[in-house]
Each structure stands twice: as structure tokens, then as C-alpha cells.
Write a structure and sequence with these properties.
Layout (H helix, E strand, L loop, with lengths): L7 E6 L3 H6 L7 E5 L9 H14 L6 E5 L8 H9 L5 E4 L5 H10 L5 E5 L2 H5 L1 H5 L4 E6 L1 H8 L8 H14 L2 E4 L8 H14 L3 E4 L5 H8 L3 H19 L5 E3 L2 E3 L1 H22 L1
Parallel strand pairs: 1-2, 1-8, 2-3, 3-4, 4-5, 5-6, 6-7, 7-8
Antiparallel strand pairs: 9-10
Helix pairs in contact: 9-10, 11-12
The structure holds ligand LIB3CWND and magnesium ion.
Ligand LIB3CWND binds next to strand 1, helix 1 and helix 7.
GO biological process, one term: oxaloacetate metabolic process
Protein name: (3S)-malyl-CoA thioesterase
Keywords: Magnesium, Metal-binding
Length: 280
């Protein structure tokens, strides 16, 4: 169980100083500083130094700072790895991870940082369990655009098996798992529906491409007032039942057993962690 909230993780192109600056005041739980797909080939080298400068300047507060590099099989991967090893960041995100061999190669170049994996290739999805279990692995990020491309899939329904495989692998290994982006960044209703689906599948949060997506995502992946109220009533009812020697309570017509109390306590802990983050 992770104590840190991961409701929202915003991609920011490393090549855009204005967006890098704006992110210092955005209420996201994590930032994915991007050197890969959001940066054109002719801007890669400059983006690397723009990003290093922004991170050195600081001001990102409690947000987890994750840098997405280019793959080690590209012209930019090795230089990215060398630069990221010296950046003031919390983790490195490797795109298009196919197997643990990709992680071993990066781990040898960056000895200290936790590694996150973009899960976005058919081979990577099929190897999700071993990738999640790698000793340096800290989190999965679904790359639903690349995955749809490689699968020749249309729509999210065609990717549900892949999404669930990643959630299963991440939960088994105890790492974070974040859902893919919702491309239509002006479609609030569509985003709300996709957030609800991802949350109900077990994702810890969602990746975003635009600040306008933050509020909806934070609301969807954080416990609601109703969730918190129910958790408190379940704990109170279970404690009362236990005091009378009972192992089961009933709340709102549903049984409450010890396993439900584990979930209820996790809900309250998450609410506390969010409150702490938002007051930092
Ligand atoms: C999608 C965008 C190109 C839209 O940009 P723009 O037209 O500038 O939007 P706005 O004018 O509405 O912007 C309003 C202000 O917000 C700032 N802004 C915009 N986007 C971001 C951001 N991502 N982070 C921080 N700040 C942002 C603008 O600077 C404006 O600020 P101000 O001028 O002060 O008012 C743009 O949003 C964008 O580039 N988004 C990121 C795209 C991206 O990162 N793509 C790659 C990641 S997705 C991916 O690769 C998924 C995966 O690999 C897969 O396979 O699925
Ligand atoms: Mg991708």
C-alpha cells in the first residue's frame, strides 16, 4: 500500500519553459517531465538542458518529479540517462519497456533513481509480471496511444485486457500503476467517465496532458465525502460488534468484515495523505 497519493500525473514537455514554470503552482500529485514524445527530434538536446535548469531552480514542492527519457535504442537515450542521473528528480520513466533486460540496461546507467516503466507495447504487456517485480521498479504508466497503435486497436474496450494485466502485475508487486492519458483534453464528460473506469479497475491515478484535466482526475481518484463517511461508519460499527464478541457488523444493509475494515482504514489514510499534501 502506498501512502503517497498518485491521483494525477501531468506530462510537461521538457522543451516548454512556460509550462515548466506553470507546473510549480498546479495541484498535481506527480509531474512527468517529458523528453520523449512531446519533444521534437530537433529540440531534444535543448529540452534536456532546459529541464535540468528548471529542476535545479526548484519550486515543485511535494509533487513527485519523474523524468521520461527517450528509449536507450534511440539517438538520445544514452545522453538522456547521463543527464537524468545528475538532475534533481525523484525517478526516471523508461518508455516502451519490453522486458527486464531493458530495465537492467538502464539500471546500469543510473545506479540510484527508482525506475518507472511505460507499459505500451504488446511484448511489455505480456511481460508485465516480471517487469513489475524488477528490484528497481517503482511504478507503471500505461501508454494507451502507443499500445493502440501497436495493437491496431480502436477504442478503450479493445485494451481492457492489457490494462487489467498491468493492474494485476502492479498490485502483485506492490508498485504504483497509473492509467493512460485522455487525448480529448476539452471533453470533461469523457475524461470523467474514463477516470471512473480506471479507478474502478484499480488504477492509483491517471496521467494527464493538460492542466484543465487536473480537478476532474483528483476528484475521481481521491476518496469522496461519501467514501470517508462510509469508512468511518464501518469502522465504528465493526468496533462495536467486536466489543460484543461478533466478527461481523452490518452497515447500510451490507456485511462488514475485517477485510472491509482494511479497505476502510486505507480510505481514511489516503484522505489524510491528500490533506497533508494539499497543505504543504
Ligand atoms: C495539448 C497542448 C499542446 C495544448 O497546449 P496549449 O494550446 O498551449 O494549451 P492552452 O493554451 O490551453 O494552455 C493553457 C495554459 O496551460 C499551460 N499548459 C498547457 N499544457 C500544459 C502542460 N502539459 N503542463 C503545464 N502547463 C501546461 C500553457 O502553457 C498555458 O499557460 P499560460 O500561457 O501560462 O496560461 C499542451 O497541453 C501540451 O503540450 N500537453 C502535453 C502533451 C504531452 O506531453 N504529450 C506527451 C505525453 S502523452 C504520451 O506520450 C502518452 C503515452 O506515451 C502514450 O503512448 O499514450
Ligand atoms: Mg507512448
Amino acid at each position: 500500500m502506498h501512502t503517497r497519493p498518485f491521483r494525477s500525473a501531468l506530462y510537461i514537455p521538457g522543451s516548454k519553459p512556460r509550462a515548466l514554470d506553470k507546473a510549480r503552482g498546479l495541484p498535481v500529485d506527480a509531474i512527468l517531465f517529458d523528453l520523449e514524445d512531446a519533444v521534437s527530434p530537433d529540440a531534444k538536446a535543448e529540452a534536456r538542458s532546459t529541464l535540468a535548469d528548471a529542476l535545479a531552480q526548484g519550486g515543485y514542492g511535494p509533487r513527485l518529479k519523474i523524468v521520461r527519457m527517450n528509449g536507450l535504442d534511440t539517438d538520445w537515450g544514452a545522453d538522456d540517462a547521463a543527464a537524468i542521473a545528475a538532475m534533481d528528480c525523484d525517478a526516471v520513466l523508461l518508455p516502451k519497456v519490453n522486458s527486464v533486460a531493458d530495465l537492467d540496461a538502464l539500471a546500469a546507467l543510473i545506479p540510484d533513481l527508482p525506475i518507472w516503466a511505460m507499459m505500451e507495447t504488446p511484448q511489455g504487456i505480456l511481460n508485465a509480471a516480471s517487469i513489475a517485480a524488477h528490484p528497481r521498479m517503482a511504478g507503471f504508466v500505461l501508454g494507451t496511444n502507443d499500445l493502440a497503435k501497436d495493437l491496431h486497436a480502436r477504442g478503450r474496450a479493445a485494451m481492457v485486457t492489457s490494462l487489467q494485466l498491468c493492474v494485476l502485475a502492479a498490485k502483485a508487486a506492490g508498485i504504483v500503476v497509473l492509467d493512460g492519458v485522455y487525448n480529448a483534453f476539452k471533453d470533461d464528460d469523457g475524461l470523467r467517465a474514463e477516470c471512473a473506469q480506471g479507478r474502478d479497475m484499480g488504477f492509483d491515478g491517471k496521467t494527464l496532458i493538460h492542466p484543465a484535466q487536473i480537478a476532474i482526475t483528483n476528484a475521481a481518484f481521491g476518496p469522496s465525502a461519501e467514501d470517508i463517511d462510509l469508512a468511518r461508519r464501518q469502522i465504528a460499527a465493526f468496533d462495536a460488534a467486536a466489543a460484543e464478541g461478533q466478527g461481523v457488523a452490518v452497515v447500510d444493509g451490507r456485511i462488514v468484515e475485517n477485510l472491509h475494515i482494511v479497505t476502510a482504514r486505507a480510505t481514511l489514510a489516503k484522505a489524510d495523505a491528500i490533506a497533508a499534501l494539499e497543505t504543504t
